[in-house]
Amino acid sequence: MPRYAAVRSHIIDLPAYEPVFPINRLAEAYHLPLEGLVKLDANENPYAPFEFIRAALAGLDNIHRYPDPEGTALRAALSDYFAVPVENILAGAGADDLIDLIMRLFLDPDDCVLNCPPTFGMYAFDAGLYRARAVNVPRRADFSLDLEAIERAVETEHPKLIFVTSPNNPDGSLLSPDDLERLLALPAIVVLDEAYVEFAPPGTSVIARVPQCENLVVLRTFSKWAGLAGLRVGYGVFPLWMMAQLWKIKQPYSLSVAAECAGVEAIQHADELNRVGQKIIAERERLFQALQKFSWLKVYPSQANFLLCRLMGRDAAAVKQTL
Ligand code: PMP
């Protein structure tokens, strides 16, 4: 028997997740100077790294110790900042870590996860890792949710989890308040991924609602707004009943000493980061206008730090390659 036959069969059949290509390897592959490349394809923060974060990391004197498994300092900072009880907050190695943790908590093989593509690929991918079924209810042409189809799918497929992204990746549209209410009325847990919400109008986030809501989880990340994608730091706000179970299964040291330190610094410098956020929003609008002059591009309005363009009469892969 070949050794790989011992691997769980659904993993052998699973297509690999396609992460973004690191910029230094891109420079090497195309023999281009690293300094000459502008990298915008992973929705990172182009104005980072920030000096105050670098200085705090350089001053760390405890990296030979295991991190605080509870992420106490970061959770306290987040609790103050959002006025959300610390007991509802869990931090980890990026929002990806928390997506995985939620699935680990809920999914038995053949359980259903409701997914609304086009959207972030990690929900369907992670569902596959747990041998769950990702049932797709595609978004409408304007990328809004098809609530009638979602409600029908909930009746027939009984998903345990519904994943929704707002602003959505890849288009940057927001979940409407009415749609959120309809989702919350369903017999499922709604996981709302707000990875890009800092680039949306103030008041868009529903993070403060979570403690009063039994079936809402909100995920956030420091990768975009705070420019910490490489350090892996994200967090979620969860109903209390779920927190008790999450603490049991969380990898104790998933939030590294460096990640927690950088996260706390970011919250302490939130005003500065919000000013950078405003600059990114202004650049988004400038680019949105500038791209209008290409008759073969349809640019979608976005509330995130990226723009989606539909190409008309041209091959998107070829244009990407040229860029
Ligand atoms: N959610 C969405 C919608 C994303 O687009 C991304 C990053 N591409 C993530 C989560 C992952 O965030 P993190 O870097 O915190 O794992």
What this model shows, in words?
With 323 residues, the protein is α/β, with parallel strands linked by helices. Helices cover 37% and strands 12% of the residues. The protein contains 12 helices and 9 strands. It has helices at 9-12, 23-29, 51-58, 72-82, 94-106, 122-129, 147-157, 177-184, 240-249, 257-268, 270-291, 316-322, and strands at residues 89-92, 112-115, 133-136, 161-165, 189-193, 216-221, 234-237, 297-299, 309-311. The strands form 2 sheets. The chain has a 7-stranded mixed sheet with strand order 1-7-6-5-4-2-3, with helices on both faces. Helix 6 links the parallel strand 2 (112-115) and strand 3 (133-136). Helix 3 crosses helix 10 (257-268), helix 4 runs parallel beside helix 10 (257-268) and helix 5 packs across helix 6. The chain is globular and about 50 Å long. The chain starts with 8 loop residues before the first helix and ends with a helix. The mean pLDDT is 96. The site of 4'-deoxy-4'-aminopyridoxal-5'-phosphate has 13 residues, from helix 5.
What is the molecular shape? Answer: globular
Total beta strands:
9
Distance from N terminus to C terminus (CA atoms, Å) equals: 47 Å
Biggest sheet strand order reads 1-7-6-5-4-2-3
Compute the number of helices.
12
H/E element order: HHHHEHEHEHEHEEEHHHEEH
**Proportion of helical residues:** 25-40%
Strand content: 5-15%
Structural class: alpha/beta
Low-confidence stretches: none
The major pleated sheet works out as: 7 strands, mixed
As a whole number of angstroms, the C-alpha radius of gyration is: 20 Å
Q: Average the pLDDT over all residues and give the rounded result.
A: 96
The set of bound ligands, ions and cofactors reads: 4'-deoxy-4'-aminopyridoxal-5'-phosphate
